[in-house]
Amino acid sequence: MKKVRIAELKARLSEYLRGVRRGESVTVMDRDTPVAVISPYDRGAAAFAIHSPSSKAPKPSEVELPPPLSVETDIVELLLAERQVER
């Protein structure tokens, strides 16, 4: 597995991606710390799995909602004040 620093990867990204297409993996390094791995895409493997809920799980309509928060502050007023600061 090749190791490459971020600056070099940015400068030669196309070259490294060609290597990945050939089946090579690349470890991306931030100084001497590995931060990511670029590896060939496996079309057979799903990026995530979707599972059906358990038969014991309650329906969403059967789940009780938590009680409302008792907040003394007007949230809309806070949002308006925050937006005025940004302008």
Secondary structure layout:
Layout: E1 2-5, H1 6-11, H2 13-21, E2 26-30, E3 33-38, H3 75-86
Parallel strand pairs: 1-2
Antiparallel strand pairs: 2-3
Low-confidence sequence ranges: none
Q: Which fold name fills CATH's third level, the topology of the domain at 2-38?
A: YefM-like fold
Give the % helix.
Answer: 25-40%
Structure summary, number of beta strands: 3
Structural class given helices, strands, pairing? alpha+beta
Provide structural commentary.
This protein is of the alpha+beta class. It contains three helices and three strands. A three-stranded mixed beta sheet has the order 1-2-3.
In a few lines, what is going on in this structure?
The protein contains three helices and three strands. It has 87 residues and is α+β, with helices and mostly antiparallel strands. The chain has a three-stranded mixed sheet with strand order 1-2-3.
Tags for this entry?
YefM-like fold, single chain, 87 residues, three-stranded mixed beta sheet, 31% helix, flat, alpha+beta
